Amino acid sequence: MITLQNIRKVYRNGPLEVEALSSINLTIERGEFVAIMGSSGSGKSTLMNIIGCLDVPTSGKYILDGEEVQALDEGKLSSVRNRKIGFVFQSFNLLGRQTVLHNVELPLMYGGVSGAKRTQRALELLDKVGLGGRVKHKPTELSGGQKQRVAIARALTMDAPILLADEPTGNLDSKSSEDIMALFKGIHEEGTTIILVTHEPDIAEYAERVLWFGDGKLIKETRRGSAAT
After folding, report:
1. pTM for this one?
2. Which letter does DSSP use for residue 26 in this model?
3. Among residues 66, 4, 33, 27, which one has the least CA distance to residue 192?
4. Domains of the chain
5. Which of 1, 56, 60, 66 minimizes the number of CB atoms within 10 Å of its CB?
6. Cα 139 from Cα 31, distance rounded (Å)
7. What is the three-state SS of 70-136?
């Protein structure tokens, strides 16, 4: 599903260069549940942005579901991102003045889905994440865990085969975190490829595979029930 070959990312500020990623070689198969761990500045968020087609590498090759990302123009890149990747962020990124239902409908609206079908799909997803009774509420009327459930429902609207989650439990208490991770587990069991950035070891334990980053490099990999490699 995802292949990274000798990926390097350099940020330039005048004469200064900061290498955020160095020679990353990585393959993620369809249907995997992968966690990415590392301290602040380790390169994990930069990697997530590249995988999510929100940024491009300085050098190397990124192949997403058979397509070489660097060869795509901005229009095609945006289309690939919308069709193949759902995003969940730590800060939820919900529209505070809009209802829960409208927040989930937005990607469908941009995708050209008609009003009736859009509403039906959004209602189905909100019911799936346990918020069927909150569709008319606004995000300000929800708990942190409920807001993240809305964000997950929104990420699932286009049936994207990949779900990227950047610190999805970072703003939640332990009980809400457990609930959200149980939801991710169920989504994974339905066949979605999940890639999760976290700094919390107990959250990473939900994944089948953990990639450890440090100083822009992949330094260690562990799989559930096996030793580090």
Report:
1. 0.89
2. E
3. 33
4. 32-58+74-223 (3.40.50.300)
5. 66
6. 31
7. HHCCHHHHHHHHHHHEEEEECCCCCCCCCCHHHHHHHHHHHCCCCHHHHHHHHHHHHHHCCCCCCCC
| C-alpha span between 218 and 38 (Å, rounded) | 9
Q: What is the pLDDT of residues 75-127, one digit of tens each?
A: 888 888 888 999 998 888 899 899 999 999 998 888 888 888 999 999 999 99
Closest of 223, 227, 151 to residue 184, by C-alpha: 151
Of 8, 78, 39, 35, residue with least CA distance to 166: 35
The amino acid at 224: R
Q: In sequence order, what are the residues at sequence separation of 6 or more whose Cβ sits closer than 8 angstroms to the Cβ of residue 213?
A: 36, 37, 38, 42, 43, 44, 47, 219
Token pair in block for residue 215: 């100083």
